[in-house]
Protein backbone atom coordinates (compact mmCIF):
# COMPACT_ATOMS: atom_id res chain seq x y z
CA UNK A 1 0.00 0.00 0.00
CA UNK A 2 2.89 2.35 0.77
CA UNK A 3 4.32 1.71 -2.68
CA UNK A 4 1.05 2.61 -4.39
CA UNK A 5 0.64 5.76 -2.28
CA UNK A 6 4.19 6.89 -3.05
CA UNK A 7 3.75 6.13 -6.76
CA UNK A 8 0.57 8.20 -7.04
CA UNK A 9 2.20 10.99 -4.99
CA UNK A 10 5.23 11.08 -7.29
CA UNK A 11 3.19 10.94 -10.48
CA UNK A 12 0.97 13.85 -9.48
CA UNK A 13 3.63 16.32 -8.45
CA UNK A 14 5.64 14.93 -5.54
CA UNK A 15 8.80 14.86 -7.63
CA UNK A 16 8.33 18.51 -8.62
CA UNK A 17 7.87 19.46 -4.98
CA UNK A 18 11.00 17.53 -3.99
CA UNK A 19 12.94 19.12 -6.85
CA UNK A 20 11.97 22.59 -5.60
CA UNK A 21 13.12 21.76 -2.06
CA UNK A 22 16.40 20.28 -3.36
CA UNK A 23 16.99 23.33 -5.57
CA UNK A 24 16.45 25.65 -2.61
CA UNK A 25 18.81 23.52 -0.54
CA UNK A 26 21.55 23.77 -3.14
CA UNK A 27 21.09 27.54 -3.34
CA UNK A 28 21.33 27.87 0.45
CA UNK A 29 24.29 25.49 0.70
CA UNK A 30 26.40 27.92 -1.35
CA UNK A 31 26.68 30.18 1.68
CA UNK A 32 28.16 29.06 4.97
CA UNK A 33 25.32 30.66 6.93
CA UNK A 34 22.72 28.79 4.86
CA UNK A 35 24.11 25.28 5.38
CA UNK A 36 21.94 24.40 8.42
CA UNK A 37 18.85 25.55 6.53
CA UNK A 38 19.94 23.63 3.42
CA UNK A 39 20.14 20.45 5.50
CA UNK A 40 16.55 21.00 6.63
CA UNK A 41 15.42 21.54 3.03
CA UNK A 42 17.11 18.28 2.03
CA UNK A 43 15.22 16.51 4.83
CA UNK A 44 11.92 17.94 3.64
CA UNK A 45 12.81 17.04 0.04
CA UNK A 46 13.32 13.41 1.05
CA UNK A 47 9.97 13.50 2.81
CA UNK A 48 8.46 14.86 -0.42
CA UNK A 49 9.86 11.97 -2.44
CA UNK A 50 8.56 9.14 -0.26
CA UNK A 51 5.97 10.52 2.16
CA UNK A 52 4.28 7.19 2.86
CA UNK A 53 7.59 5.42 3.62
CA UNK A 54 9.05 7.88 6.13
CA UNK A 55 8.74 8.49 9.84
CA UNK A 56 9.34 11.88 11.46
CA UNK A 57 10.66 11.69 15.03
CA UNK A 58 11.87 14.34 17.49
CA UNK A 59 15.62 14.65 17.79
CA UNK A 60 17.41 16.20 20.75
CA UNK A 61 20.80 16.83 19.11
CA UNK A 62 20.51 20.61 19.28
CA UNK A 63 20.09 22.37 22.59
CA UNK A 64 16.72 24.02 23.16
CA UNK A 65 17.91 27.60 22.71
CA UNK A 66 19.66 26.92 19.40
CA UNK A 67 16.76 24.89 18.03
CA UNK A 68 14.22 27.59 18.94
CA UNK A 69 16.34 30.37 17.44
CA UNK A 70 16.90 28.47 14.19
CA UNK A 71 13.21 27.58 13.92
CA UNK A 72 12.26 31.26 14.38
CA UNK A 73 14.69 32.31 11.64
CA UNK A 74 13.30 29.49 9.49
CA UNK A 75 9.73 30.72 9.97
CA UNK A 76 10.59 34.31 9.13
CA UNK A 77 12.47 33.47 5.93
CA UNK A 78 10.06 31.07 4.21
CA UNK A 79 9.00 28.33 6.59
CA UNK A 80 5.66 29.97 7.33
CA UNK A 81 4.90 30.37 3.62
CA UNK A 82 5.76 26.72 2.95
CA UNK A 83 3.60 25.61 5.87
CA UNK A 84 0.62 27.64 4.63
CA UNK A 85 1.07 26.26 1.10
CA UNK A 86 1.05 22.67 2.37
CA UNK A 87 -2.02 23.39 4.52
CA UNK A 88 -3.82 24.81 1.47
CA UNK A 89 -3.07 21.75 -0.65
CA UNK A 90 -3.92 19.46 2.26
CA UNK A 91 -7.34 21.10 2.62
CA UNK A 92 -7.88 21.00 -1.13
CA UNK A 93 -7.09 17.28 -1.31
CA UNK A 94 -9.20 16.46 1.74
CA UNK A 95 -12.30 17.91 0.05
CA UNK A 96 -12.50 14.67 -1.90
CA UNK A 97 -12.66 11.35 -0.11
CA UNK A 98 -10.09 9.76 -2.38
CA UNK A 99 -7.59 12.58 -1.76
CA UNK A 100 -7.56 12.29 2.05
CA UNK A 101 -4.40 10.12 2.31
CA UNK A 102 -2.45 12.59 0.19
CA UNK A 103 -3.96 15.56 2.01
CA UNK A 104 -2.75 14.04 5.29
CA UNK A 105 0.76 13.86 3.84
CA UNK A 106 0.58 17.58 3.03
CA UNK A 107 -0.46 18.26 6.63
CA UNK A 108 2.53 16.21 7.76
CA UNK A 109 4.77 18.30 5.51
CA UNK A 110 3.17 21.44 6.95
CA UNK A 111 4.08 20.26 10.43
CA UNK A 112 7.71 19.73 9.57
CA UNK A 113 7.81 23.04 7.65
CA UNK A 114 6.66 24.76 10.83
CA UNK A 115 9.69 23.61 12.84
CA UNK A 116 12.19 21.38 11.00
CA UNK A 117 15.06 21.82 13.43
CA UNK A 118 14.98 19.08 16.02
CA UNK A 119 13.24 16.52 13.78
CA UNK A 120 14.70 13.40 12.20
CA UNK A 121 13.31 11.73 9.09
CA UNK A 122 13.77 7.97 8.86
CA UNK A 123 13.01 5.88 5.77
CA UNK A 124 10.91 2.77 6.43
CA UNK A 125 11.56 0.79 3.25
Ordered list of secondary-structure elements with their pairings:
Layout: H1 2-29, H2 35-49, E1 54-58, H3 64-94, H4 100-114, E2 119-123
Antiparallel strand pairs: 1-2
Describe the structure.
The chain has 125 residues and is mainly α. It has one domain. It is 71% helix and 8% strand. The protein has four helices and two strands; from the N terminus they run ααβααβ. Helix 3 packs antiparallel against helix 4. The protein is globular. The mean pLDDT is 91.
- Give unreliable regions as ranges: none
Please tell me the overall pLDDT. Answer: 91
Number of helices: 4
Quote the beta fraction.
5-15%
Q: What's the gyration radius in Å? A: 14 Å
Structural class: mainly alpha
Indicate how many domains the architecture comprises. 1
The backbone outline, from C-alpha atoms, is globular
User: Order of strands side by side in the largest beta sheet?
Assistant: 1-2
Order of helices and strands: HHEHHE
Fill in the keyword field for this structure.
two-stranded antiparallel sheet; 8% strand; single chain; 125 residues; mainly alpha
Care to give the gist of this entry?
The protein has 125 residues and is mostly helical.
Amino acid sequence: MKFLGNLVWLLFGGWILALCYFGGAVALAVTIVGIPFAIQLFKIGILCLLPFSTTVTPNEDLSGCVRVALNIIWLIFGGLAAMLLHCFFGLLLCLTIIGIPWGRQHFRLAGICLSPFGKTIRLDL
